[in-house]
Amino acid sequence: MSLLSWSDSLPAGQAAGVGTLVAAAQAADGVGPVSDDVALTLRPGAGASPDRSHLVAADEAGAITGYAQLTRAGDGAWEAELVVHPAHRRHGIGARLVATLLDAVRQAASAVAARPATLDIWAHGDSAAAAALADRTGFSRGRVLLQLRRPLVAFDGADLPEPVWPAGVTVRTFEPGKDEGRWLALNALAFASHPEQGRWTEQDLLPREAEPWFDAAGFFLAERGDDLVGFHWTKVHPVDPAPPAGVVAAGPIGEVYVVGVDPAGAGGGLGRALTLAGLRHLRDDRGLAAVMLYADEDNVRAVRMYEGLGFSRYAVDTKYRAAITGSGF
Fold this sequence. Notes:
It is a single chain. This protein is α+β, with helices and mostly antiparallel strands and about 325 residues long. Helix content is about 30%, strand content about 30%. It has two domains: about 5-145 and about 320-325, Gcn5-related N-acetyltransferase (GNAT) (Aminopeptidase); about 155-290, Aminopeptidase (3-Layer(aba) Sandwich). The chain is built from eight helices and twelve strands. The model has no long low-confidence stretch (mean pLDDT about 90).
């Protein structure tokens, strides 16, 4: 039987073990079991955060069989991601991890006069097993995140036209050490209603700048005079994080990592132009054959724009939610 333990930060050896677990799950399922945000906390030297806790399941020999991360997302709002090693599934580890997460949030709710709380758990790939576990443990289906894809080659280039920039807009690439503050301010403005992206601080941005995949040449900033009015940050995955069924390894593949536009200028074609600039960079400068992106299913305007640029649905991630009070849920 696996033993569960909480910690504020993972020692190097344990972090490596969780990384091995994540890789095994991705190889078995064909989709990464945790988000970029969680993966960054498994890097050496990631350190502790008062809003994040690690829950590790290990067998009697110390081998890691499951992992979950619990994050405080706001006043009464909690988020988690979890993964069970493929060799240890169907033994109740996932259900124990979920129950332990629920208990932790319930205790936190009790500590503030039984204030209601919510726990959201992401299911990457939206598998039938995840849906069944959510149903058994009292979670309901909530936010749906689409992964869209399109090829970049095998065309004559006519379907990736030159960007048409709104009047007065110029474009340059991101300069590390100079542009962080302005970018964070626009990111917060552009994603003010987004549950995750709009809350970014330097603690979210700087670790990504230190990642091997970061490339300022693929991070485009649109300016009108002295004002930053839009951006497109691209990413390159050396290996496809969710290869087609039956493919053991594929890649590299590009990603439309994040596109944002000042709401005051939305609807003027800047988002489309920035997207095209990034796609052409990934194809022409990086030589990539395909590109992916994530978009909320209910963000109809963005999904429509991407589909108009040749993207189609490839995979689905789903967030499941449980409502909790100090006495139950």
